[in-house]
Write a structure and sequence with these properties.
Oligomer: single chain
Helix content: 40-55%
Bound molecules: S-adenosylmethionine
Number of helices: 11
Strand content: 15-25%
Length: 285
Amino acid sequence: MPPVAAEQINDAEMTRFVDLIYKVTGIRISTQKKTLLSNRIRRRLKQTGVETFEAYYLKLKRLPASDLEWDRFLEEVTTHETFLYRDQVQWDWFQREFLPGVIASQRETKGPKALRIWSAACSTGDEAMTIATCIASTLPNLSEWRVQIVGTDIGVGALEQAKKAVYNERAMHLVPEICKKKFFTRQPDGTSWQANPILTGMVNYRQHNLLEPLNEAPFDLVFLKNVLIYFDDVSKKTAVGHIRKLIRPGGLLVAGAAEGVSDLLRELQRLQPWLYQTSEGKNAR
Ligand SMILES: C[S@@+](CC[C@H](N)C(=O)[O-])C[C@H]1O[C@@H](n2cnc3c(N)ncnc32)[C@H](O)[C@@H]1O
């Protein structure tokens, strides 16, 4: 008879998995979450036919990070919770202060009509699509603007979902009715919405691990929400170091309310508990 996976991983296995997850993602899972982690990994054992936690651990270690099994494993151990217009106060700021500031500044300087925004750890793209929706409903003569929204996440599966740009009622529940009607198309199933090309045309998705540098031109604004809450101080510092280099002088960072990055961003001006600006610029743009 083949060996049957134990109900729970033992303490030594737990430590090895926790260390592995930390090394790859920066996420530090509490060793107290043994039952949760056991259940999640057991799902992978079932799917792959691997019989023990130990054997699955060894299998993962041997596979290159690009292997699909890595993504499936990370899918199980990371949180993808997200929805459009999450944290209303930030979207009010984005639409009522940031975007009007961008328009006014462009008019004043006669500079290029260009805007680059990064949704870091974007999960299934709901944040990136909220950015696009706010822009489409605020920027006059949108076609004259070169808007680039880059959504990145470590999870390939989440990004595949993001590229489909289809959102269920739950993800859409905070989208203003007027925007829903104007920029989304209800799907034949009646329970989901497809973002229209005016939105999807602004967004590009790329796989990226926040523990590594991202090869991109600087951004005017970066959203970094609900991801570093799972990191420890060391991996937070690494991620913030990479992100900081990609905010243009005078550019801004929107952090999640519980992101715990204020100590790491001391050299930036804190405009709100969740909003930071690089020191080189006086205006929001
Ligand atoms: C809870 S979601 C946040 C989604 C969105 N930012 C929001 O606030 O609604 C967290 C995302 O972080 C991603 N993630 C975790 N570790 C990561 C890493 N090291 N690099 C990039 N993304 C990571 C996960 O795959 C997941 O999709």
